[in-house]
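Input sequence (433 aa), recorded before submission:
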Amino acid sequence: ECILSGIMSVNGKKVLHMDRNSYYGGESASITPLEDLYKRFNLPGTPPESMGRGRDWNVDLIPKFLMANGQLVKMLLYTEVTRYLDFKVIEGSFVYKGGKIYKVPSTEAEALASSLMGLFEKRRFRKFLVYVANFDENDPRTFEGVDPKKTTMRDVYKKFDLGQDVIDFTGHALALYRTDDYLDQPCQETINRIKLYSESLARYGKSPYLYPLYGLGELPQGFARLSAIYGGTYMLNKPIEDIVIEDGKVVGVKSEGEVALCKQLICDPSYVSDRVTKVGQVIRVICILSHPIKNTNDANSCQIIIPQNQVNRKSDIYVCMISSAHNVAAQGKYIAIASTTVETADPEKEIKPALDLLEPIEQKFVSISDLFAPTDLGTESQIFISRTYDATTHFETTCDDIKDIYKRMMGSDFDFEEMKRKKNDIYGEEEQQ
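Predicted structure, token format:
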């Protein structure tokens, strides 16, 4: 919603952004001080002194990293919101196999030294990666007999004779699929996802992921600032009493006895429970540790992916870990957040393989959230509802949703180039001097 309010303001729309919370970012906020996190999860008492100063903590409620070459970074660059943020590269990406974690190889040398694969497997995998790197959907000469719109990914893996373990880590740690449904779909999307991973990795070398200093809560604040520069208004602590509808169309929002008139409304599912449907659940466990995660070379940040096949599940389990190096925790402390899509009536048992990797855990905060999708696409009502944040640990699906809402509101595709031109019109004069 914050990103859209920024983009809509740049597009010349008059934007009023209201939030019932006292902080920016709603569900994707970073909670500070630590005392507030204890309150939010109804934990008795206050954090022990060993946790350091409460103010040193900024704990994300929803863990996600940014792909270095991904859509959110493009949005940040084109809107110049990057000037309000500082990013650090995440030190490593790991994948779980047979109860142990292995670094996802990020260079050819690492791939050759990796114990994830045997020697012959490595050669075949390298061939496959070269193929993906050269693949260009507009140039049939790069297809080598594969039809990007028809050939399934399963067949592409067969073509390169890749074994099950390699397929697991390619599909889940590189292409970042949560389930194995992609295997029987046309391969174009998967190849593009692996390309995105490789190109993001090439930018910084350690991993393809970035993370903002002071936590993800900085992102919505950055876009709220962008909106303000273009004349948008932001109101925190603003309770929403009623959405005013006439002839099936939104005309305003009532708050504290007053009505703000509007032509279009963007909101998350929590504001319009009658226009959304539950599509699943996600469990997230925030863990505070006093040590880096074992077998990660003492990395101060990392991602671990547990592919579903390895733990007899349908969906992957993710762990994101950050630390005091990112100004989100007290000195010497680490925050690891495990998340997955709920599949059974005992979600805490489902996430156990991830928590076992983090032991000993000093304090944990468990949340189980319902996932909602809009049943009303806004065509008639002009109410545009976002989807709940999923279990993935990057922003690509969120950006797809932003672009989808933009298209439904504006009737045209979101165009980065157009944003660029608008920006030049406003800042153009200053830049020439």
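Checked by second reader. Residues 428-433 have pLDDT under 50 and may be disordered.
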